[in-house]
Amino acid sequence: MTVRPILTIGHPELRIVAEPVDPSIIAGPEVQALIDDLIETMRDANGAGLAATQIGAHLRIAVMEVGDNPRYPYKPRIPLTIAINPIIEPLDDEMVEINEGCLSVPMRGNVQRHVNVRVRYHDRAGVEHVEIKRGLTAGTWQHECDHLDGVLFIDRVEDPTTLATWEEFNEHHRAAFVERITAFVERVGS
Ligand code: NI
Questions:
Q1: What is the mean pLDDT of residues 155-182?
Q2: Active site annotation includes 40
Q3: How far is the CA of 48 from the centre of ligand 1 (A)?
Q4: Which of 13, 14, 64, 141 is the most exposed place for a label (fewest CB within 10 A)?
Q5: Is residue 118 packed enough to be buried (19+ CB in 10 Å), middle (13-18) or exposed (0-12)?
Q6: Segments making up each domain of the chain, as ranges
Q7: What angle do CA 160, 161, 166 make, to 5 degrees?
């Protein structure tokens, strides 16, 4: 396992659309080593998720995990999840405005995300999963899958006045966001 450098906004490789992983190579050493590096790098950076694109590997693999995360204390837990070839289908038109951050972007901003989605993916053992995700967890999935399409959350920010550095977010916006999103998480349960 190696902590790999995380590409930041402006690096052209963040805009590359990642290639699907042939299921026959999931068990192979290259893909398994890439997954180990993604987990190690995500944990080292205290991220809630990391897509292969962010370390310059252009395969459709993302990892997610939320424990007691100091970057996102309001986020419901996500067990360590390895999503290979993830596909997201919105289940309805319900949207929520989430203030997002990203290990590749030194700012936060408000983005509209689907509240209820179905995700399909393979795990690192090659097993296919079909699951329903809701709320902030659904938002995390949408954020990570966007990376695999070369999309950053900042591309989806409709109101640029919501953009803030972490420092200014913490000072001026965190309290109101945490209050609103905590009520949302209590309502949708995720
Ligand atoms: Ni990100």
A1: 96
A2: no
A3: 9
A4: 13
A5: middle
A6: 12-97+113-151
A7: 95
Closest CA to 140 of 101, 180, 166, 179: 101
CA atoms of 60 and 51, how far apart (whole Å): 8
- Contact, 55 vs 47, CB < 8 A? no
Class of domain 12-97+113-151: alpha beta
- Cα–ligand 1 centroid distance for 186 (angstroms): 24
State the pTM of this model. 0.96
Residues 157-178 as b or e (16 or more Cβ within 10 Å = b): beeeebebeeeebeeeebeebe
Condensed to tens digits (0 to 9), the pLDDT of residues 57-116 reads: 999 999 999 988 777 778 899 999 999 999 999 999 999 999 999 999 999 999 999 999
Angle between helices 135-148 and 174-188 (to 10 degrees): 110
Which entry of 89, 100, 144, 158 is annotated as an active-site residue? 144
Q: Is the Cβ–Cβ distance between 1 and 36 less than 8 Å?
A: yes
Distance CA 75, CA 190 (A): 8
Q: Is the dihedral of CA 161, 47, 26, 3 positive or negative?
A: positive
Tokens linked to 190? 């995720």
Average pLDDT rounded to a whole number, residues 122-133: 98
